[in-house]
Amino acid sequence: xxxxxxxxxxxxxxxxxxxxxxxxxxxxxxxxxxxxxxxxxxxxxxxxxxxxxxxxxxxxxxxxxxxxxxxxxxxxxxxxxxxxxxxxxxxxxxxxxxxxxxxxxxxxxxxxxxxxxxxxxxxxxxxxxxxxxxxxxxxxxxxxxxxxxxxxxxxxxxxxxxxxxxxxxxxxxxxxxxxxxxxxxxxxxxxxxxxxxxxxxxxxxxxxxxxxxxxxxxxxxxxxxxxxxxxxxxxxxxxxxxxxxxxxxxxxxxxxxxxxxxxxxxxxxxxxxxxxxxxxxxxxxxxxxxxxxxxxxxxxxxxxxxxxxxxxxxxxxxxxxx
Length: 322
Prior knowledge:
Distance between the termini: 94 Å
Number of domains: 2
Shape: elongated
Radius of gyration: 30 Å
Number of strands: 19
Number of helices: 6
Helix content: 10-25%
Order of helices and strands: HEEEEHEEEEEEEEEHEEEEEEHHH
Oligomer: single chain
């Protein structure tokens, strides 16, 4: 009887071993290795090629800068996210080395996103980024010099799919409103000067008020609602698109419809000229400090927040201010 039980026990153990051997994916690595050969701090070069164009970025000091197809400060948040995603990729499962199957994983020359990332003048990883897994938590990739397809943990493909122009820093102005001393609003036939006044209140604390000086009228204190619109827009004025010098969409700024000048502590001075964008009802174009190498496209609502006349500043046209 004991002999029978021993034989059954041995058979059960053999079956368990066979089950684990058969059910274990031999292509899955037991120790997950980094996909890239270097870490975050070493990377200063990024190249991306997709169906929308080719982008080249380099790290200059602490900031990332787009150097091709244009020369402009990059969106630092986008660059940081890209590096975090790519340096976090881990090799998990070997899939295939059959080049005929590359299209199944969107890793052929037509559908893949091509990436170069690393140290300029040093080690640069070159690879193709394919489609995401069904769970969208993993991605198919292959090194540029290999036919091997691997599944890695992470999902960076959307980062590599942007149009090159989307990598520009969209910031036009980001001013600290507590540093603003004077604002001049200029129209074709008039101008309004807004001057900050600081004086102690009854409690002995410094109070900030604004005084408006307008052509052919007495000075007055602008309403808070209008001033807050102006100051909050100057705090964060972003572009929605860009027009580069030489483009057929470039417009003449010979006669701006509206100009805002901002004077800040420390002799900082910013000038933004605005004109309506041709063929657009809700967009304007802006020129910063007379530089026409890059013109910014902005929403009309942003211009409206800045373009205040005397009636707006006095609160006489409540419907317009709403």
